[in-house]
Amino acid sequence: MQFDHDLQSIQEMRDAVKRAKEAQLKYLSFSQERVDEIVKRVAEAAYAKSLELAQMAVEETGMGVVEHKKMKNEVGSMVVYESIKDEKTVGIIREDRVNKVTEVAYPYGLVAGIIPTTNPTSTAIFKTLISLKTRNAIVVSPHPRAVKCTVEALKICQEAAVKAGAPDGLIGWISKPSMAATNELMKHRDVNVILATGGGALVRAAYSSGKPAYGVGPGNVPCYIEKTANVSKSVSMIVDSKSFDNGTICATEQALVVDRNIKEMVIREFKNNGAYFLNADEKALLEKVITLSPGHLNPAIVGQSAVKIAAMAGVAVPQDTRVLIAEETRVGKDVPFSIEKLSPVFPLYTAESYEEAKEVCLKLLNLGGRGHSLSLHTNDDAVANGFALEMPVSRLMVNTLSSIGAVGATTGLTPSLTLGCGSFGGNITGDNVTARHLINIKRMAYGIKDVSVPKPSIPSMTNKKAEQETLNVEDIVDQVLNQAGSNAEVDPKVIAEMVNQVIQKISN
């Protein structure tokens, strides 16, 4: 009996989860030394296949540049490994001998890894490494357009892990992915945490699954070239960054904001670095290619070269063109150049002042990149600090390539291919996600402070009871007068004074 694709996909996912759960229970008993050896072997195996996997990814997806995807695979394997190799993730990881608190790490259990089509092999390697480092198992749902290369990366990791002594099944995947299987994977009772990298709808599904989830939002990254910047150096880096893997990294610069008094110099340097400036007619043609409907990016341009995108719009450009630029004044869903484009296409905004530059950057972030990243080129520390304090982003790259700087290649940021957007972007963290995000910590605490717990006091009478038991002087006087009769010569004041004296004696 032939089952349809969705049913086959769901069954494959369930089988992979079952194997992964069984393997993870065995993996729980592994020492830090055994875990670290497995992680090292997996990183080395993936690194050795960086070029092969890059070629597969470009061939299958039709996106990006082989040499650049090779670099991303190297970052996702050995650079990530170097950043986590010395972390303690098994057993006792910290001891505070002064306060007598001991911290013990324990894993989530089973990780659901959702992989994008833009960075399929590097993200798969990265998520596998941080899962294994923390004694978690992982089951991956590849993007349908990047199945072969993603699964091949996982097979390389799985083979190396098993050879190093890891339980078979610790790394699993869906070779026939479907949205139905991905949704069920995220909701599966045996899945304990989700690492979701992909489109907005997918990330929202991860957060609504009822599971702990690390999701990331879009990165409509503004790039402000401030008047004190080293224009020649800055422009060279920006073009290198924007054309890196044809703009497929979500932290890549998406829009240029330039101070008026250096604008002409900036334009000249961009032209010297392979940029093509579109005239009004060419800009109009390209707008129709960037979006097919307002606010919706045309997936056909994602990860394509500037020359190819220009040809799609019917615009003739030199064959050595690296980026396409058009001057822009507006920001909005109905302004194609202002959205996240994931391709080497730039709008250029002119700022008359520092305040206007901030305003334009904020509009761009509010359009679709809140919480992600911002790129800044300046030699004024006050400007950099001002942006760091005021911009709603989780990372700000200064005087470097934003695309690879955000993932830790040119900065001191934690090497990662999952970049959190924090509360600005509706994410649980603004960190570069890494191994420490996949462990929980329990704490053992000894008593170090003596306290005296007071005993409860004897409860006082209620107001009602007190009222009932209070001697009423006037009532007593009235009773004495009645008993004495109306003819008796009695002074009420004298009697009242006598009664008060008696009550005081009784009270004392």
Overview of the structural elements:
The protein has about 500 residues and is α/β, with parallel strands linked by helices. It contains 18 helices and 17 strands. The protein has helices at about 5-25, 30-50, 50-60, 65-85, 120-135, 145-165, 180-185, 200-205, 230-245, 265-270, 280-290, 305-310, 355-370, 380-390, 400-405, 465-470, 475-485, 490-505; strands at about 90-95, 100-105, 110-115, 135-140, 170-175, 195, 215, 220-225, 255-260, 275, 290-295, 295, 325, 345-350, 370-375, 395-400, 440-445. Strands 10-13-14-9-8-15-16 form a seven-stranded parallel sheet, sandwiched between helices. Strands 5-4-3-6-7 form a five-stranded parallel sheet, sandwiched between helices. Strand 11 (about 290-295) and strand 12 form a beta hairpin. Helix 1 runs parallel beside helix 7 (about 180-185), helix 2 (about 30-50) packs antiparallel against helix 4 and helix 3 runs antiparallel to helix 6 (about 145-165). The longest helix has 23 residues, at about 5-25. This is Acetaldehyde dehydrogenase (Acetylating). Keywords: Oxidoreductase. It comes from Neobacillus kokaensis. Pfam families: Aldedh.
Keywords for this entry:
44% helix, 18 helices, extended, 508 residues, alpha/beta, 7-stranded parallel sheet
